[in-house]
Design a protein that fits this description.
alpha+beta, Chitinase A, domain 3, 4 domains, seven-stranded antiparallel β-sheet, 7 helices, 23 strands, 14% helix, rod-shaped, binds calcium ion, repeat, calcium, EF_Hand_1_Ca_BS, peptidylprolyl isomerase, EF_hand_dom
């Protein structure tokens, strides 16, 4: 076709040029203002890309994947040039990466599209990334300012202590859910990144927790909202938490100099209190009522934490006591008390008195008179009406020889005692009728034994 000595004319359009000395060429096309950390080898990244030949023919695009391309950098998962070209990128940065063929797919090309030896251009936009290497810290790479990935949840949790420990119950609140979500940390109830990220949180702390996918929902993602290999960002407001092994915390605010008697289990007490949530929201107060609150310590009337808090107190002593929910109203809460609430009580002990044994309305502190009936029949007419009985009992109390049941109206108690002794209900106690409770109990036991 070509005769000798012919001059050749080529009409050339250069489509590609490369040299073995070529290196990966990168050019930043846009970069966010802030860049806390750049991609480094062994990072996991998610990025968008368009891959073209040098003439602009697109051969691949993450957009055809309907998602990001997710992979590790510098670990041999990518073509060499890509491993190299991604290093140093900021999140949100767009970069043009030109990769010579020997650092790309080589002379064989790749797939049906690129059958020639050609250079590749990748237009990369990093979506997010993280590194799971402990040496690099657990921190995610961070998120670009203008990420399309919105926080998937807001958590609110409460704490009263310096930091939760494994097994603590956290109160998590999705703002969109508008109620608290209670869970344990460090026990596998929540994604492990959250388990880790919540450690050491303080009361009132607001914390952003960024969780890489291997500590969240992995490559699969979950539901419609969390795509595969997603890095999650949580804005957490720490409100309160507690641990089932926690007990109450007592701060003594004021204590009288002399204290002859401190409260103990079984005592009848009167106390004033304010009860608030940890954030100061007032729930209840005895100051809203006519008089102080009363209780028998060790009974079932008050919550366990308050019962403990009121023991060992002197009259006039003031305390602030923090009660975790398992010693309060529990995970369910109670009327006016939210579930899993940590309660703060301001307490003042007003009165303490040893209570009587169960079933007793009056006990002798001194020895009872040898002939009780004669002693009680003050006018010696052989019978004891209520007035006489009442005068006798009140005299014993005044002279500190005996005590009536505390916390009840004395006249009512005396009337009840009289009613018990006036067995035929004729308004008088006779010698036959009068029996001490101890004798009665002894008789009862005898009957049972018979
Ligand atoms: Ca009499
Ligand atoms: Ca009688």
């Amino acid at each position: 076709v070509i005769p000798p000595d012919a001059t050749l004319v080529f009409d050339v359009m250069l489509v590609d040029v490369w040299n073995q000395d070529d290196r990966v060429r990168t050019r930043s096309m846009s970069k966010p203002d802030r860049c806390n950390r750049t991609v480094q080898s062994s990072d996991f990244v998610r990025y968008h890309y368009n891959g073209t030949l040098l003439d602009g023919t697109q051969f691949d695009s993450s957009h055809s994947l309907k998602g990001t391309y997710n992979t590790y950098v510098g670990m041999g998962w990518l073509i060499k040039g890509m491993d190299e070209g991604l290093v140093g990128m900021c999140l949100g940065e767009r970069r043009s990466i030109i990769i010579p063929p020997f650092l790309a797919y080589g002379e064989k090309g790749h797939g049906r599209v690129c059958v020639c030896v050609c250079a590749h251009g990748f237009y990369i936009s990093i979506a997010d990334g993280y590194n799971s290497s402990p040496a690099l810290g657990r921190d995610a790479v961070g998120l670009p300012a203008h990420t399309s990935y919105q926080p998937v949840g807001f958590l609110g949790l409460k704490t009263i202590y310096a930091g939760p420990k494994v097994g603590s119950v956290l109160i998590l609140s999705g703002y969109s859910r508008n109620h608290t979500y209670d869970t344990y940390i460090g026990m596998g109830y929540i994604i492990s990144g959250m388990d880790q990220g919540l450690q050491g949180a303080c009361m009132g702390e607001r914390r952003r927790i960024i969780i890489p996918p291997h500590l969240a929902y992995g490559e699969q993602g979950v539901g419609d909202n969390i795509p595969g290999s997603a890095v999650l960002m949580f804005d957490v407001h720490v409100i309160d938490f507690h641990n089932p092994s926690d007990t109450i915390e007592i701060l003594t605010v004021a204590k009288p100099e002399s204290c002859n008697q401190s409260s103990k289990s079984g005592d009848y007490i009167q106390y004033r209190y304010n009860c608030s949530l940890i954030d100061g929201f007032r729930l209840f107060s005895s100051y809203d009522q006519d008089g102080p609150q009363e209780a028998i310590l060790g009974g079932q009337k008050v919550i366990d934490g308050l019962d403990l808090a009121l023991q060992g107190m002197c009259v006039g002593e003031k305390r602030v006591v923090v009660v975790p929910p398992h010693l309060g109203h529990g995970e369910k809460g109670a009327r006016g008390v939210p579930g899993s609430a940590v309660l703060v009580f301001e307490l003042e002990l007003v009165h303490v008195e040893e209570s009587l044994p169960e079933g007793y309305m009056f006990v002798w502190d001194a020895d009872a008179p040898a002939n009780l009936y004669e002693a009680m029949d003050l006018n010696k007419d052989g019978e004891i009406p209520l007035e006489e009985f009442s005068t006798f009992i009140k005299t014993q109390v005044t002279e500190k020889k005996g005590r009536l049941m505390p916390g009840a109206d004395p006249d009512k108690t005396i009337s009840d005692m009289f009613g018990n002794q006036d067995r035929n209900k004729d308004g008088k106690i006779t010698a036959d009728e009068l029996k001490l409770k101890t004798d009665e109990d002894a008789e009862k036991i005898q009957h049972e034994e018979l």
